[in-house]
Amino acid sequence: MMYPTKTALILLDKLAPWQKVNVSAFLTGGLMHGYPEMAGEPYKDNDDNFYLAMIREPVFVYGADSQTIRRTFERARSRGMAFSIYTRPLFVTNNDADNHASVAATPAAGLDIVGLGLHGDRKRVDKIVNGLKFLA
């Protein structure tokens, strides 16, 4: 099935494996908050046990260097897209308040972005991620 929307994560390709997984989880959580329609239906097994819903469509994960992530960030901003970010300083904070304070203290041009999360119209997201390669 081809969805009219697309979900894409762009991760700094030089991150450690645990960082890539962690950033992906945070970005996806942010997207689900901003786009609740991303959630599918809850699951139920044959024994009538219920499980929480997951994202209803595939998530495409791209890898990029710092310059390419910055370019993608600017593309998304210039198109008025609402998106999630993860910055390098968030690896050393240990709570949401400190995360917010870190981002709030930094102008957009100074954000050391290591991850972006996008969700929206498929064609719009495709234009923003144009030229990126899937994370290997």
How would you describe this protein?
The chain is α+β, with helices and mostly antiparallel strands and 136 residues long. It has one domain: Bit1. The chain has helices at 17-34, 66-78, 96-104, 122-129, and strands at residues 5-12, 43-44, 50-51, 59-64, 84-87, 113-121, 133-134. Strand 2 (43-44) and strand 3 (50-51) form a beta hairpin. The radius of gyration is 16 Å and the shape is globular. The mean pLDDT is 96.
Could you name the key traits of this structure?
136 residues, alpha+beta, Bit1, five-stranded mixed β-sheet, two-stranded antiparallel ribbon, 24% strand, DUF2000 domain-containing protein
Biggest sheet descriptor: 5 strands, mixed
User: Which homologous superfamily in CATH is the superfamily?
Assistant: Bit1
CA-to-CA gap between the ends?
Answer: 25 Å
Measured by DSSP, the beta-strand proportion falls in 15-25%
On the 0 to 100 scale, the average pLDDT is 96
The stretches of 5 or more residues where confidence is low (pLDDT under 50) are none
Strands in their spatial order, largest beta sheet: 5-6-1-4-7
Number of domains: 1
CATH architecture: 3-Layer(aba) Sandwich
Helix and strand sequence: EHEEEHEHEHE
**Quick one: how many beta strands?**
7
User: Structural class per helix/strand content?
Assistant: alpha+beta
Q: Assembly state here?
A: single chain
**In CATH's first tier, which class applies?**
Alpha Beta
Question: How big is the Rg?
Answer: 16 Å
Instruction: State the share of residues found in helices, binned by percent.
Output: 25-40%
CATH fold-level topology: Bit1
General form:
globular
